[in-house]
Amino acid sequence: MDRKALIIEDEPELGELLGEHLRAWGYQPHIVNEGINAVSWIRNNKPEIVLLDLLLPDTDGYTICELLKLDRDTNLVPVVMITALSGNDDRARGLEVGANHYLCKPFTSAELKRAIQSAQAKIENLKRSGAAGEIHFRLRSDTHYLDELNQMLASLLLFSGLTQKQVKQLTTAIRELGCNAIEWGHKKQVDRIVHLDYRIDPEKVTIVIRDSGPGFNPSNLPHAAGTEDPIAHMEVRETLGLREGGFGILMARGLVDELSYNTPGNEVTLVKYFPAGDHLKPDSQRTGETSTKRQHA
User: Fold this and answer.
1) Domain check: are 231 and 266 in the same one?
2) Could you read off the pLDDT of 10-54 as tens digits, one per residue?
3) 137 and 279 in a common domain
4) At a CB cut-off of 8 Å and minimum separation 6, what does 8 contact?
5) One domain, residues 150 and 260
6) End residue of a domain, out of 77, 101, 128
């Protein structure tokens, strides 16, 4: 049986050419010239591959891809961006919103086939590991961008299976440790990039925050609050001329189920488990969710 594929391309001749290639490779292509109905078509038909142009008459491919990847129902649909935009910033933005491969025009038939295979392989690897979705974010080292991302994550996490209370706890921990990456890892150098990975597995949500700083030893932080004496560090901070604070890591540990750093200390992993028996349920049955939230997400 032919496998479904969607081509979103506003150049009719190129759309037909892509369709011919896909038919030759065993796909049943559906071609649209605008993006307006693409997301709903993908949600209803679950194609095995989406070929997505970025420059469309009614919207842009970045927006379509982001909508697909932020929707749990379509997160694991492989997306290949096909575009004339070849700049590094364009490619970075495409991968940031969740594209599984970025292919620049012009390209050969062999390059297209490899791009499709690469995108599908990435999704299959996620499925084999048990993941129900994965998104990568990049943000500049400014708390304004961190707050914007956290608002997006809060909406996304409500559809993961976490309760509203758990979402609040996790996003609070993300903000605390994201601020640490910005303030300590990057010394507030706004052009340096903080990476945040979101992953949903059958039993948990995992968030990884990574900066490009030298790292630190989380077990040796005299200027940060410790479990045995949460206020002993305040005198150290005063001596060093630091602002009041230092509670971020201790607070975050109490807000998530697991918190761990890599060896250099420039990457922190946060884990929050779903309530027992509540994960991977249909939207209308998940704790803290309603159909109204789905409509306004």
Assistant:
1) yes
2) 999 999 999 999 999 999 999 999 998 999 999 999 999 999 999
3) yes
4) 32, 34, 35, 38, 50, 51, 52, 53, 56, 61, 64
5) yes
6) 128
Query: Mean of the pLDDT values across residues 212-240?
Result: 56
Q: Residues 93, 160: one domain?
A: no
Residue 43 sits in the same domain as residue 166? no
Higher pLDDT, 135 or 206: 206
230 confidence band (pLDDT: 50, 70, 90): very low
Backbone angles phi, psi at 71, to 5 degrees: -100, 120
Structurally, the chain folds into a number of domains equal to: 2
Q: Domain range spanning residue 109?
A: 3-128
Q: Of 96, 128, 160, which closes a domain? A: 128
